Amino acid sequence: MRRAWRWILAVLIAIVLVTALVLWLLLRGSLAELEGEQALPGLAAPVSIERDALGVVTITAGSQDDAMRALGHVHAQERYFEMDLMRRSAAGELSALFGPVAIDADKRMRVHRLRARTEAHLGEALGDNPQAVRAYVDGVNAGLAELSVRPWAYLLLRQSPAPWQASDSVLAGLAMYADLQDPGNQNELALARIRDVVPPALHALLAHDGSSWDAPLQGEPRGDAVLPDATQLDLHALAAAPTAPAAEADAVGSNNFAVAGALTADGRAIIADDMHLALRAPSLWFRVRLRYPDPQAPGGQVDVSGFSLPGVPAVIVGSNGHVAWGFTNSYIDTADFRREPANAPVTVHEERIAVAGGPDVLFPVRETAWGPILHTHADGSGDALRWVAHLPGAVRMDFADMARAGDLDQALKTADHAGVPAQNLVIGDRSGRIAWRLVGARPDRGPGCVPQGFNTLQDSALDDGTDCAPWPIRSDAAPALIDPPGQRLWTANSRVVDDATLAVVGNAGYDLGARGQQIRNLLATQDRFDEHDLLAIQLDDRAVFLQRWWVLLHETAEHSDDPSLKRLAAASEHWDVRASANSTSYRIVRGFRGEVLDAIESALLAPAKARLGEDYLPPRLAQLEGVAWPMLQQRPANLLPPGVDSWDALLAKAAHTLEADLGKQGPLQQRTWGERNVADICHPVSRALPAFTRRWLCMPADQLPGDRDMPRVQGPSFGASQRMVVSPGHEADGIVHMPGGQSGHPLSPYWGAGHEDWVHGRATPFLPGKAQHVLKLVPAR
Questions:
Q1: Is the pLDDT at 262 greater than 70, yes or no?
Q2: Checking DSSP bridges between strand 253-259 and strand 57-60, what pairing results, if any?
Q3: Is residue 251 predicted with pLDDT exceeding 90?
Q4: How far apart are the C-alpha atoms of 494 and 210, rounded to whole Å?
């Protein structure tokens, strides 16, 4: 019997070992080829692909088409699954991979019919150089086919990857629209519904679009709200129970700023750019250097380095030796609802959603000349949405021409044809000039058709069609600031333009100006800059924004007998002014502010929720600070939240709630910001796998400094998806960071390469380092 059990145990161990070996070999089979020689169909001449110690790729080719073909090959071998997710998320096709769990997400995007619209206008999307896009597509499919095993994530999902198409590269661009803008236009709809049921003075507070933190490039700050008196608004008279506030949302966007040559020792312009997005492993971006002859480029040669987006044949932000550029999300108003009557002409499109492991789901999309109907009312009328992403030209591959721009003026001409989500483009050129420009697709609204959005300069509810015809889009003749007198530029997703320009471009809920003001003020403190000076601004985690809240907390504690306030004040006595990982005071002050704002927000929104019922949508009140702070300074009785005896009582209640929450976790003095702000940067499929797989599929769980209202934006899974400081012509002095590595394969040496530099703010060279691996692609015989 013992011999039998030993034999059985040995067989079981052998089966486990063989299974593990097979799985290991399968996983390794989808690793990218790094060295040797491979034939690539369609090449006109050999191409060299070098990788440095971080996996940064340098492609040296004989033409643009060959460079794009090789770029597609590399993207596919390193990131095909992530590329697939982008096209599927935009098209509403995730259910075909993940099954029924993704049906609702697919419906939210399928209503826009982005694949059908893309294929109907593919020629315009490919731009003036379609052969380069098609070369990229062929390279993608060749790179995928050359993997001995399909990418590892497909093995887990028991799926096979579908080939890449030219329309998929356009959909990858449209995925960025969905990420950077609001496909459901919920904020606009929420404020419009609220306006219909609350007093004008209350709506004005909710829609107030500025604060004392405003730091626009053009025009004056809007400033804090002027509070209404009791004759205009009395919250107690509205008799509504407070409602739970919406969860704090991240302001998708970025910081970028620049200094002109007059502020540097040798006349160089320097650009800084860090794009704040959801963080994942691998990183969203892929670092690459492209070198190839081009008669339209200065000196007949393109040499561009920076960040590419796998799925798109272009360097999205970077430097080409003559021009450097970076983006932040602009938050202009790019969508409008229109109420369509019940008898409006409607076309019904039967969208078929494929579902892995289940039957297809038929999803009817009702569409008018204005756009798809997203909401239908009891009387049969509907809210139709017109969004720039619906229209031909929203994505155009012509922005890839930035790689050959020779100076600031040529770069601005390229921007005229940019089919990208509306962005704040900051550019610097080799001569030391700098410029800001609103770039990308924006509505070309006619006279009398005003942006709806949050813009309090206009008072337009959902349009009834009398003033607005279905508008086209444009990207030329955009607002700009070229060669600023102060030799400095900055944007941070807050308001950039003056009142007159804002009345045209609209406000889709731009962010509080605290980050932008902090950057502006830091730029004003020096007369000379180099790359490390700008990196220091990017990494600034000083809590300037919370200084007055720390004072408020301690002043309130001094005049109160409430023990919660006393304990919070004692634990936060050492105010280090930073969102550092070891700061207890920052966590307490931030939490105190959050509890106070939640109480004010819930009271302001309660009347609307009570009257709207199921039609209520929670708006994102990005400028609530500009309303709440005047309240706390003036303490008007008419705006005191119902159920609270005094403003002091409100502050004490906020302190009590916070202290109770933190106290459950242990002694207050040990509740640091880093304890809460722990990196959660994982591969998308990790959420569906056992917890032990996080060891291989996530970046380390580092405690992170930084937060949302300061230059160093960092949260557990949100923050700087890339960081760049570079001067055109001086790329060797440039600096970059990425939160994850180049490869999407956990067994690759480049899976997490560079992550530690991102965490600790250590400068990583902008240009690729010495080649460690060289792959030669040759024309197929």
A1: yes
A2: unpaired
A3: no
A4: 9
Q: How confident is the model at residue 452 (pLDDT cuts 50, 70, 90)?
A: confident
Q: Convert the pLDDT of each residue in 209-218 to its tens digit.
A: 999 999 999 9
SS3 of 645, please? coil
CA torsion sign for 577, 579, 585, 590 is: positive
Question: What mean pLDDT comes out for the span 254-280?
Answer: 97
Q: Compute the distance between CA of residue 373 and CA of residue 368 in angstroms, rounded to an integer.
A: 7
User: Residues 255-264: what's their mean pLDDT?
Assistant: 98
- Angle at the Cα of 423 (from 420 to 424), degrees rounded to 5? 145
Report whether pLDDT(537) > 60: yes
Q: 437 to each of 116, 432, 491, how far by Cα in Å?
A: 31, 17, 11
Are residues 27 and 152 in contact, defined by beta-carbon separation less than 8 angstroms?
A: yes
Q: Which amino acid is at 288?
A: V
Q: Given phi > 0 = left and psi -120 to 50 = alpha, else beta, which region is 84?
A: alpha
Q: What share of the chain is helix, strand, coil (3-state, %, to 5)?
A: 40, 20, 40
Q: Return d(Cα 443, Cα 470) in angstroms, integer.
A: 10
Q: What are 704-755's pLDDT values in tens digits?
A: 999 999 999 999 999 999 999 999 999 999 999 999 999 999 999 999 999 9
What type of residue is 244?
A: A
DSSP element (H, E) containing 606:
helix 584-612
Whether residue 288 contacts residue 49, with contact meaning beta carbons closer than 8 Å, is answered with no
Identify the pLDDT of residue 447.
Answer: 83
- pLDDT (tens digit per residue) in 570-608: 999 999 889 999 999 999 999 999 999 999 999 999 999
What distance in Å separates the CA atoms of residue 514 and residue 516, rounded to the nearest whole number? 6
Rounded Cα–Cα distance for residues 411 and 438 (Å): 13
Cβ–Cβ < 8 Å for 121, 130? no
At 450, is the pLDDT very low, low, confident or very high (cuts 50, 70, 90)?
confident
Q: How far is the C-alpha of 523 from the C-alpha of 489, rounded, in Å?
A: 9
Q: What are phi and psi of 201, to 5 degrees?
A: -65, -35
Q: 109-112: long-range contacts (C-beta < 8 A, 24 or more apart)?
A: 109/178, 109/183, 110/351, 110/353, 110/363, 110/365, 111/363, 111/365, 111/372, 111/374, 112/183, 112/372, 112/387, 112/389, 112/390
Q: Which of 317, 344, 480, 495 lies closest to 413, judged by CA?
A: 480
**Nearest in space to 777 (alpha carbons), one of 59, 172, 205:** 59
249 — alpha (psi -120 to 50), left (phi > 0) or beta?
A: beta
Query: Contact at 8 Å (CB) between 671 and 584?
Result: yes
Fill in the DSSP letter of residue 386.
E
Exposure pattern of 89-114 as b/e (b: 16+ CB <10 Å)?
A: bbbbbbbbbbeeebbeebbebbbbbb
Task: Output the CA torsion sign for 277, 280, 283, 285.
Answer: negative
Per-residue pLDDT tens for 110-165? Answer: 999 999 999 999 999 999 989 999 999 999 999 999 999 999 999 999 999 999 99
Cis omega (within 30 of 0) for bond into 711: no
pLDDT at 54: 98
Q: Residue 464 has what pLDDT?
A: 45
Query: Which of these, 172, 152, 447, 442, lies nearest to 284 by C-alpha position?
Result: 172
Reference 147, options 73, 43, 65; nearest CA is 73
pLDDT beyond 60 at 18: no
Contact 178, 448 (CB under 8 A): no
The predicted structure's pLDDT at residue 458: 36
Strand residues in 404-550 grouped as ranges (E): 423-429, 434-439, 442-443, 473-474, 480-482, 488-491
The three-state DSSP-derived secondary structure of 700-721 is CCCECCCCCCCCCCECCCEEEE
